[in-house]
Design brief:
Order of helices and strands: HHHHHHHHHHHHHHHHHHHHHHHHHH
Helix content: over 70%
Protein name: Exocyst complex component Sec10
Pfam family, one: Sec10_N
Number of strands: 0
InterPro entries: Sec10-like, Sec10_HB, Sec10_N
Number of helices: 26
Radius of gyration: 66 Å
Shape: flat
Family: Belongs to the SEC10 family.
Strand content: under 5%
GO cellular component, one term: extracellular exosome
Structural class: mainly alpha
Length: 835
């Protein structure tokens, strides 16, 4: 295109030079092919006409550049020369360009028509070719369909031929197998005839049966012959022979079976000997070869058992060494901690041995799991039971071993240690591998003789521990009593010290025994129902022990109160005795009082320790026992009832002892009042001296005694027990004081002294926190006014306080002016109205 355009440009240039009006332009279709550019085409058209204009334009630009500043107008325009409008037109080539453009348009239209004609022809030609192509495709499709049909028929034929060939192959394979079977059968019959020759004659056999290099083949053939012969004999036994030939054949096969059995035994022994030799040399390949052949004899059971039986871990020396390692030196008493360490060490050694044997077994035997099962079973049925037999010597329940030799508790502790460690061994062996062997069940069976009567031994052990502890405490108390003797005893005040006191430490030890027993129950009976039953039985032992111990302790403390009471009764004397006898009796009475006070304190300490002991048992039940009983319906409630029943005997002893304490206190109060209260305390002479407003000496001594002795009660008692005791004591004190004051006569100053005593007593009993007692002493203070007021004021006193009338009838007679003031007749109308 570039060449045509150059040619056209040359033609147009020459044409222009000859004539300015004619612009011959020739456009060719080739100009529009390839990399067509409209700008290039347009430039080639007009460049021949525009150069003269470009030169003139350049000259005009130079003249414009020569214009000075004076030629510029104020608005920025320039002044043109005066002859500027007279020049030629600015574009003189316009006409030539218009002619050129028209000529170009005409040529372009012609070219378009040519192209349209060519496109029309091409369309027709394409349509014709498309029709031919479609026709060809239709013919090809028909040909392809026919080809596909041919292929389908061919495939069907090939399939049919293949099936036929497969059937032929199956028949050929079956025929070959039958031929092979027949050939093997012929060989087997020939070998069977050799074994059937004569009983016990194995010398005339084929070389196969004596060739060591063909032992595997010989073993396989011998097993087949043996199986066939035994099966045939079995059929002959079931079916009654109908002809003589059957009987003859049967007898002949029996000979063959016997010979085959002998040969198999001889071959098996030979292989076992080779296996043993290889085992000593650690020749695993030979061992594996022999084991594979031996697996054809009873699935290799004899080889497996033979291998396991020859393991060094089952030698007698090794088993005896086990006992020495676990039990220590012969004759020494085994310690559970030492036994635990010994069992851990031994069982670890056994596990390592089994793990080492497992590697060999895996490399040698075709069925390693079966061999591992036999090995582990041998461990748990031979080596472990022999050790347990020496370790767990079941003691007699009728004549148990003494505690000096460990007692029943040693057997139970060793049993628990052995059971726990053997369970760990079973889990370790299961991890190493033991085939389908029930290791856990086998381990449980080792301890069944011990677990069947375990609870009986546990209860007997707890009874033995309890009995031994009481004997130990009794011996200590006896030794202490003998060493102390009577030296330093103050007038019989140490009666209580000769009795053994309740010890919270001892009860805590009872609980610790029971807790240890419960831990063994958890170990031996993990099932909730069975566990609840034995836990309840063991806990009942604790209840019995604590109940008996604290009840006996309370009874011993009561005995000291009884002895103190007997001392008081012994030194009660009459009034008509000599002064020396009275002084001796008074000294003995003081000693009895000291014994009573000591016994009181001792009993209060026993009550306090009894309460602490019961609290310890209750806390132990709530923390450890309760949750074990809940899975069984009714077990928890039954145990709670048993606990209440067991403690009821102790509660009865406490109640009786507290009554004795009140009697002891009141006896001493009465003694102090009788000894210290003087007649002049409440009937002082009218000598003009100011009355004494202090409490009487008897009141001071009684209050001091009560404060001292009841300090132990305030510490030991609590809750309702404390309230009940103090209320009863307050009522008894009130009654005792009333009876005591009935012995005296009161004048007004003595009434004031009595009122002061009542106030002192009232302030003391207010510490009892017993409102009924406080009310009684308040009424006593009001009633004391009957000795103070004038006779004429008594009526108004009773009318203002009607609640004291009943006691006032007795007390008013104690006024020293009762007869002189004729108070009986003066108050008779008041008493009649009251009645």
């Amino acid at each position: 295109m570039k060449e045509s355009r150059d040619g056209a440009r040359t033609a147009r240039t020459s044409t222009k030079s000859s004539s300015a009006d004619s612009y011959p332009l020739v456009l060719d279709i080739d100009d529009f092919k390839g990399d067509f550019s409209f700008d290039a085409l347009f430039g080639n058209l007009v460049n021949e006409l525009l150069p003269s204009y470009q030169e003139e334009d350049a000259d005009s630009a130079e003249s414009h550049s020569n214009i000075t500043a004076n030629d510029l107008l104020p608005n920025g325009s320039s002044r043109l020369p005066s002859d500027a409008g007279k020049s030629s037109p600015m574009f003189p080539e316009v006409d030539a360009l218009l002619s050129l453009f028209k000529n170009s348009c005409t040529q372009l239209i012609d070219l378009r028509k040519q192209i349209d004609g060519k496109l029309h022809n091409l369309k027709k030609e394409v349509s014709v070719q498309d029709s031919k192509h479609r026709k060809t495709l239709g013919e090809l499709e028909k040909g392809v369909d026919g080809l596909f049909n041919s292929f389908a028929r061919l495939d069907s034929r090939i399939s049919s031929v293949g099936q036929t060939a497969a059937k032929i192959g199956d028949h050929l394979q079956s025929a070959d197998a039958q031929r092979e079977t027949a050939s093997q059968t012929i060989e087997l019959i020939k070998y069977l005839m050799e074994f059937n020759s004569s009983p016990g004659d194995l010398m005339e056999l084929s070389p196969l049966f004596s060739d060591d290099s063909r032992v595997a083949e010989a073993a396989s053939i011998a097993q087949k012959l043996r199986s066939f012969a035994e099966e045939d004999i079995g059929r002959q036994v079931v079916t009654v022979p109908s002809v003589v030939g059957n009987a003859t054949a049967s007898r002949g096969l029996e000979v063959a079976v016997a010979n085959l059995q002998d040969y198999c035994n001889e071959l098996e022994n030979r292989l076992l000997s080779r296996f043993d030799a290889a085992s000593q040399k650690r020749d695993l390949s030979t061992m594996a070869e022999c084991a594979k052949i031996l697996s054809q004899f009873n699935r290799g059971t004899s080889a497996m058992q033979h291998y396991v039986g020859l393991r060094p871990m089952f030698d007698l020396e090794v088993v005896n060494e086990d006992a020495r390692l676990v039990l220590g030196d012969q004759g020494s008493q085994p310690s559970p901690s030492n036994v635990a360490r010994g069992l851990s060490s031994l069982y670890k050694e056994i596990t390592d041995m089994v793990r080492k044997e497992a590697a060999t077994i895996t490399a040698v035997f075709p069925s390693p799991n079966d061999v591992m099962s036999i090995l582990v079973q041998r461990v748990l049925e031979d080596r472990v039971p022999k050790l347990l037999e020496k370790l767990l010597d079941k003691p007699s329940l009728v004549n148990p071993p003494p505690m000096e030799e460990g007692g029943l508790i040693l057997y139970l502790r060793l049993l628990a240690v052995a059971y726990e460690k053997t369970q760990e061994l079973a889990r370790d062996l299961r991890g190493v591998g033991c085939g389908d062997l029930d290791v856990e069940g086998l381990t449980e069976s080792l301890f069944l003789p011990h677990k069947d009567i375990y609870i009986e031994y546990e209860q007997a052990s707890l009874r033995q521990l309890y009995k031994t502890k009481l004997e130990e405490l009794h011996a200590e108390c006896q030794q202490s009593s003998e060493s102390t003797g009577t030296i330093g005893r103050t007038k019989g005040a140490s009666i209580a010290s000769t009795h053994q006191q309740i010890s919270v430490t001892v009860v805590t030890e009872f609980v610790r025994w029971n807790e240890e027993a419960i831990s063994r129950c958890n170990l031996f009976a993990p099932q909730p129902a069975a566990l609840a039953a034995i836990v309840r039985a063991v806990f009942t032992c604790l209840l019995d022990q604590v109940s008996i111990y604290i009840t006996e302790g309370l009874e011993r403390a009561r005995d000291s109160l009884t002895e103190a009471a007997a001392l008081r009764e012994r030194f009660v004397i009459g009034t008509s005795v000599s002064r020396r006898v009275a002084a001796a009796a008074a000294s003995a009475a003081e000693a009895a009082a000291a014994a009573g006070e000591s016994s009181f304190r001792s009993f209060m300490v026993a009550v306090q320790r009894c309460g602490s002991s019961v609290a310890i048992v209750q806390q132990y039940f709530a923390n450890s026992i309760s949750r074990l009983l809940l899975p069984v319906e009714g077990a928890h409630a039954a145990s709670c009832e048993e606990m209440a029943t067991a403690m009821s005997s102790a509660e009865g002893a406490v109640h009786k002892g507290l009554q004795q304490c009140i009697e002891t206190v009141m006896a001493e109060v009465e003694r102090l009042l009788s000894a210290e209260q003087k007649a002049t305390d409440y009937r002082s002479p009218d000598d003009g001296i100011a009355p004494d407003h202090r409490p009487t000496n008897a009141c001071t001594r009684v209050v001091a005694y009560l404060s001292r002795v009841l300090e132990a009660a305030f510490t030991a008692l609590e809750g309702l027990n404390k309230q009940s005791f103090l209320t009863e004591l307050g009522n008894r004190l009130h009654k005792g004081l009333l009876n005591h004051w009935q012995k005296f006569t009161f004048n007004p100053s003595g009434g004031l002294r009595l009122k002061r005593d009542i106030t002192e007593y009232g302030e003391f009993v207010r510490s009892f926190n017993a409102p009924p007692v406080d009310e009684k002493f308040e009424l006593l203070g009001i009633m004391a006014n009957v000795f103070i007021v004038a006779p004429e004021s008594l009526s108004s006193l009773f009318e203002g306080t009607p609640s004291i009338r009943k006691d006032a009838q007795r007390f008013i007679q104690l006024r020293d002016d009762y007869k002189s003031a004729k108070l009986a007749s003066r108050l008779s109308s008041l008493w009649a109205g009251s009645n």
